[in-house]
Design a protein that fits this description.
This protein is α+β, with helices and mostly antiparallel strands and 466 residues long. It is built from 14 helices and 19 strands. Strands 12, 13, 14, 15, 16, 17, 18 and 19 form an eight-stranded antiparallel β-sheet that branches. A five-stranded antiparallel β-sheet has the order 5-6-10-8-9. A hairpin with a 4-residue loop joins strand 5 and strand 6. The protein binds flavin-adenine dinucleotide.
Length: 466
């Protein structure tokens, strides 16, 4: 049911002029597809834009940016719509939705891919896997490459090949003034620095150019341990992963074993300490590495084996369909002291719902070899990005998952590096945004003032123009 306040920009002649410039669909609250088009991945967030433009191409993007700017209406840019805080949409304004700009062109000779700004990770993996290649990105196929990359991009290949932004060669962008430009190390290098971690603050990225890597079949899957062994496993993990070969990635998780046939029925619903592995190295080296893993405590299950990389990338997709309630908090961590492990165990015992989870993603290795001022992503010295995610299908549990997530993050915050990964934050205010960017914030604010002085692009973790 639409409750939108109608601004003059959204009726009559003004809207007609926009419609004449646009090839993609223009969706208003009275359209039958409106509710489907405005729905966000996070079912907890319910926004009612006055207009949704599903851009067909760069020309549509330019027209929509100019429309919002010239009529003084709020503009949100939507990539995959996965943002926890719902920053791909807005109330009463215009949503520039890139859902139809999802093309991926792989050049196997240069091992690069040109990816349009609205593609999902699943689309990217599908296209690159045909050539035995991959872009380092996140772990769920429905996530948008747009928001994920602009915030950093953490996934299974981070230790070996770095963050998504470390594999970015350039971006095509539409700026607040409507100009179309390319930013790279050679062109607009200041802007290229800013978009590598600074989010959607600087314009609409219509295409990303990525360096690809030879990643085809991986040896991957989870190891589960009984919850009471969490302290022993975490103490081992904090030492093991940082000296393991960079071809091995393993994120630590606390979760309830989902009731799916691949897992033994007696484990369904058990809260377990988990490491989800991805090994891209020589297959004959995998055995000795995973022997070390299985020697820790007494694993309940070690479901690790060869699989195509996209199979790993989409492993969690069926468990996490769009529309669930999500509330998450996050922090970066340099270390995992014993006192923090006690808190992990306590919050694992209090897991509020079957889908709620905690993940600690390693961001050492190649991600550490980029300096903290080389891109806008500041926490290059952190070893893990942690996220405390309360998840449930039932809106009645929204309060419980939020309370758990906030409590967990606050309990761990004293052991954290101080700020959080921008893509794992809700709308948490300017102090948290500054804590994320640390001494890169002032440079970001100056670049914002150059490219978007009036803060047209402000539905994001907002950098205020200096
Ligand atoms: C289930 C799930 C799994 C996740 N897994 C990972 C993971 O493994 N690794 C990781 O790093 N992150 C992960 N994330 C976090 C994810 O990176 C963020 O939620 C991110 O914001 C999603 O981007 P999006 O394009 O889907 O979102 P949207 O909500 O569409 O956009 C998010 C923000 O980015 C901006 N934006 C998006 N596309 C563009 C563009 N083309 N040009 C300009 N601005 C743009 C939007 O304006 C908005 O401010 C996950 C999130 C979820 C919900």
């Amino acid at each position: 049911m639409a409750t939108t306040r109608v601004s003059p920009a959204f009726s009559g002649e003004v809207l007609h002029r926009l419609a004449q410039r646009i090839r993609g669909p223009l969706i208003q609250p009275t359209d039958p597809v409106y509710d489907r088009a405005r729905a966000l991945y996070n079912g907890m967030i319910d926004k009612h834009p006055a207009l949704i433009v599903q851009a067909a191409d760069v020309a549509d993007v330019v027209a929509t940016v100019e429309f919002a700017r010239d009529n003084g209406v709020l503009l949100a840019v939507r990539g995959g719509g996965h943002n926890g805080g719902g920053l791909g949409s807005c109330d009463d304004g215009v949503v520039l939705d890139l859902i139809n700009m999802d093309g991926v062109r792989v050049d196997p000779t240069t091992r690069t891919a040109r990816v349009e700004g609205g593609a999902t990770l699943g689309q990217v993996d599908h296209a690159t896997h045909a050539f035995g290649l991959a872009v380092p990105a996140g772990i769920i196929g429905t996530t948008g490459i747009g928001g994920l990359t602009l915030g950093g991009g953490i996934g299974y290949l981070a230790r070996q090949y770095g963050l998504s932004i470390d594999n970015l060669l350039g971006v095509d962008m539409v700026l607040a003034n409507g100009h179309f430009i390319t930013a790279s190390a050679q062109e607009h290098p200041d802007l290229f620095w800013a978009v590598r971690g600074g989010g959607g603050n600087f314009g609409v990225v219509t295409a990303f150019l990525f360096q690809l890597h030879p990643v085809d079949t991986v040896i991957a899957g989870p190891t589960f341990w009984p919850l009471e062994q969490l302290p022993e496993v975490m103490r081992w993990y904090r030492e093991f992963i940082v000296q393991a070969p960079e071809e091995l990635n393993g994120f630590f998780a606390i979760l309830k074993v989902p009731p799916v046939p691949v897992f033994p029925a007696e484990l369904h619903g058990e809260t377990v300490a988990t490491i989800v592995w991805c090994y891209t190295g020589a297959p004959d080296q995998a055995g000795p590495l995973f022997d070390q893993v299985q020697a820790v405590g007494s694993p309940l299950l070690h479901a690790v084996g060869p699989m195509p990389y996209p199979a790993l990338q989409s492993m969690f997709d069926p468990l996490l369909p769009p529309g669930l309630q999500w509330y998450w908090r996050a922090d970066f961590f340099n270390e995992i002291p014993d006192a923090a492990i006690e808190q992990h165990l306590a919050y694992a015992r209090a897991l509020p719902t079957p889908l709620s989870t905690m993940h600690l993603y390693p961001i050492d290795g190649a991600a550490h070899r980029v300096g903290r001022r080389d891109t806008a992503f500041s926490y290059r010295d952190a070893t893990w990005a942690g996220v405390f995610a309360g998840i449930d299908p039932d809106p009645a549990n929204a309060g419980a998952i939020k309370t758990w997530s906030v409590g967990y993050q606050e309990a761990l915050h004293p052991y954290s590096a101080g700020g959080a990964y921008v893509n794992f934050m809700m709308e948490e205010g300017q102090d948290r945004i500054r804590a994320t960017y640390r001494d890169n914030y002032d440079r970001l604010a100056r670049i914002k003032a150059t490219y978007d002085p009036n803060n047209l692009f402000r539905v994001n973790q907002n950098i205020r123009p200096a």
